[in-house]
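Appendix B: complex inputs.
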Amino acid sequence: MSMQPDRRIDPITLEVIRNGLASIADEMALIIMRSAYSPVVRDIMDYSTGLCDADGQVIAQGLTLPIQLCSFPRVMRFIRERFGEGLRPGDVLITNDPYGSGGQHLPDIYVMKPIFHGGELAGFAATVAHHTDLGGIVPGSVAIYATEIQQEGLRIPLMKLYEEGRPNQSLLDLIAANSRQPVEVLGDLRAQMAACATAERGLVALLERYGRIDLRRYIEALHDHAEAMMRQTIRELPDGVYVGEDFLDGLGEAPEPIRIRATVTVSGDTIDIDFAGTSGQVAASINCPISLPESAAFTAIRCLARVDIPNCEGYFRPITVRAPEGCLLNPIYPAACGARGVVGYRVFDAIMQALAAAVPERAMGGTEGGPYLLAAGGQWQGRSFVLNEMLVGSWGARADRDGLEGVSNPAANLSNQPVEMIEAEMPVEVTAYGLVPDSGGPGTFRGGLGFVREFRFLKDMGFTLRGDRRTHPPYGLEGGGKGGPSAHHLVRRNGETESLPTMPMRGFSAREGDRFRLVGAGGGGFGPAFAREPARVLDDVVSGKVTIEGARRDYGVVIDAATGTVDAIATRTLRENRQ
Amino acid sequence: MGAGFRVGIDIGGTFTDIALVDATGRLEIRKIASTPDDYSRGIAEGLAALVGELGIDPASITGIVHATTVATNTILEMKGARTGLVTTAGFKDVLEMRRLRVPVLYDLAYDKPPPLVPRQFRLEVRERLGPDGNVRVPLDESDVAAAAEVFRRAGIEAVAISFLHAYANADHEIRAEAMLREALGASVYICRGSDILPEIREYERTSTAVVNAYVGPVIRRYAEALEARLAHIGITAPIEMMHSGGGIMRLGRAVTRAAALVESGPAAGVIACARLGQGASGTANIISFDMGGTTAKAALVENGEAARTDEYEVGAGINLSSKLVKGGGYPIKMPFIDVSEIGAGGGSIVALDGQGRVTVGPQSAGAFPGPVAYGRGGIHATLTDVFVTLGYINPETLAGGSIAVDAEGARRALFEQIAGPLGQDVTTTARGVLQLAVSTMTRAVKAVSTYRGRDPRDFTLVAFGGNGPVVAADIAAALGIRRILVPPAAGVFSGLGLLRSDAEQDFVQPVLRDAGSLSADTFAALGEDIKARGRAAMEAEGHDLVSANFRLSADLRYFGQAYELNVPALTEGGVAPLIEAFHAEHARTYGHRSDSDPVQLVNLRLSIRVPAASEINGFAASPAMLRKDRRVDFPGGTLLSPVIGRDDLSSDWRAGPLIIEDYDATCVVPPGTDARLMADGTIEMLVRGQ
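Resulting structure:
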């Protein structure tokens, strides 16, 4: 049992302070959700909140998106570099720029507020939210076919949005003028600022309770504690060099696979992750600023821990992450990066596969692959609208249980937009939203089912897409099968069906009455499918998650349709013959 | 309320509290063991014993008000009805896909709560409405008939019907209900989404309808058993049930709105606080703090009204009221008193993990084996053992001598399990654990106050439940709260709340229009419509509305937001004052407002309250207790503390340290806090320097 090294640290007070910090980060998240304007933030919940100490190190995270949360440190480093001692009470900082400010892509606006107490810097409130639209060539500001960041919308280098309590109205006007949805953008920015103000009150209250010096010492102890737990977690992994690879399907009509390669070196109580061998940056907007691969790496390793590590930056310390300049994961200006999110999820997958070789019992088969994007926009009933769908839905199987379906990707914590809200506000009808039978990767434990979401356009409009996981479906582990592939189908009013690319390098025009059918990939399986208990297969057949044909084909289980029971003899024969 | 007796019955997992008030307002209180195999049996036996003992004619009992955990337990134990669901074609998986989010980050071993309706009993029918209620695809009755046949063969006991946009047009659901009713007979419980929750957002509405259907038949059986058992002992008074919104409703309505019962017990406690505020104790702004054996609960009472929410996840474990779309339980969207709950009660286990972290709860030793101090086989140190070790509660006996306390065992467990491994002495550890528990419970209080933009320092803390008054002063100190009230009968205060509740029902009218565009006439007409509807519904149930109170309010938001704020509304004077009230409430709750953005009127809400509360102005004498002064380890030092009874206090302030022991609860007055007795028997405490 490891105890606190610093004898002046009372473990109980440490826990009290940890509670206090976590409750501030959650309160921030709540305020954004409830007062934001855009469906992306209020319904899909694509935003994150955290609290940093005076050195800019994260000390608490709200119940939001891991893949965003672990990106605060890099923005904080730029803030410290850029402003140093030049921060004043009442300042609020803003940026969305991946180049030189620590951002990930332009829609993600970071709003950070330095918090002062007794005239001294005490910490920072940190928020990031995905904004509906910041201009650029398509509604939603995520055009996968953009080739330079200048095509993607408004860049906001790290600067002050408020200076000693006074708003930078010129900047606010500039942002509003560059967005297709200025009311939503300004409303969401206000929600982010309100969350920062809440954090300020909360942190000051804690300081008044414990004093600046004491709180600082406890926060340092929290970092140390998290670091010690992470080092302990890493020590539990066998030393070695593990290589994991995964692929993006590729761009356009004739896609070439894009490689993500992670070399994970476990050595004692440290982990080094090197992305050398990953494909180079591309002339499309899936280039992924290093902030996101870092964040994905921290998330993946944190997921392998079996203990409740405090969500503070101390646990990042034993982990190093490197990517060669000019590769997909560390692109050189002015590479476009609007649709980079999918790459972050594939980084998570590559690391997960590498470490599955070391600790399969802690790993998970491939997920749906990250959010599938559909964006559309136009004018309707005298107002402009932007539909931003970010659809997630399946986990891979675990060593001792099936994968989940109808769930957010573990590296995100996204929600889905209510169908009724979409239809009430936009000229789109959702005609189906459900699970796809036989799409879970077969295994001793089955991957979660993929999902289908089908839209009918009620007027002519343009739309853009970004999917993945069609030619490289989610991986299985330990002999488990791959998850079912994704699909994009445009069904014209006359019934003609067209399969659209996963990462199309162009936009599409839909006519009134056309349908678009989006299928998300199913999760990967774990262990050989023929070892799955027939009773579990029967349960899946009864619930319609696996068809009778699927049970025979994928699991070697013969179900008698008339009686609804397993034909044990036929099953044994089938399984023996196919072993 | 007439010349007879009224009885409040609050069933908890361990104890059932019975409160009986006579026509003069005099109260009798009993705690009896709950009978989880059939709760109605314990109630009937307890009541029979009480009327026998007091020589009361059962026929002179004129009202029964009841709160129960039956609905909640049904869900927690997954013992609800065999339930089916009928949905719009293409959407049977909405119930299972939920809102996707998970309540914990970085946990690959997480499992979702299983859907209350298995996939094979979620059946689709062809029909489709638009958001304005227009029929896009007519209802295919052959699909409904086919679904009914599947349900009939499978022996389905309850059916939920939830079609897209049915909040805007219930016709298809009503027709489907009629067909299912005809095919399945009167015994099958049927719940329509458009009836239980006529509001936009398909998952929340479907989930609410499904929870209602899942627990409905259980509540119906329970209601029938209770009525029969009470009739058997000669009690034929109408039974009313407390709902989660803090009002009472007739038993028949409770059966059709069974999901509304899930927080009935906690709601009763908050209502008791609200009434306390309206009485002699003289405060309209209260934070209620209820700490029992397994959890601590907090709620906010403002201007004499309990703060409400309309979102709740039952079975999500700890409910921090945070409303962050957590996904750990089964959402119910109905009016709830906004109670935040955290797993820190007297039975909560104090533990040390492999990393040297001390935790309190949420695991609980429950009533059995219970804390080590109770000597009933408990081996894990609990918060009660910490209280005993510190001297906060009596180290020899509890409940007037009926429970022997093993203080040495409590101290030893705390040493062996926590203090020893930490290298601390027991007293230091006990003090630290108390502070940790206080910080955890403080989160529950913050969830209903600071999370809503309310400063707890502006409120009076009302502490009740068996352990609430033990830690009230520490909680108040941690939050900067100055004034604390500990009401009489604090240990059975929820039972008292039942007798202090009014009949109350809520009605909602979706509007979804730009508030600024509504003329004064249109707005007034909307208000009159909902009032007429509410009046008709309550009169149909036999309520006399002569002295009823009609409270109209509106849910508003900035156009584009997804969450509304509720503000009181007046139908006369147009809509402008309402819009300004919304801006102000938005600024107060979230710290910002935007006067230039259009405001959307989402719903009008009406709450009709028919007075039913009994006056309570006296208490039957409690049994004599032996008390002696003892040493108590307060945070600042160990002091010899006088131990007195409530009746030993007077209207003169008396400085702590002081321990006030009642039959049903102990009140700790630490140094730096003063206490006195108010005219109605309430203990008032003031924390100095706050």
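The first helix of chain B runs from residue 39 to 54.
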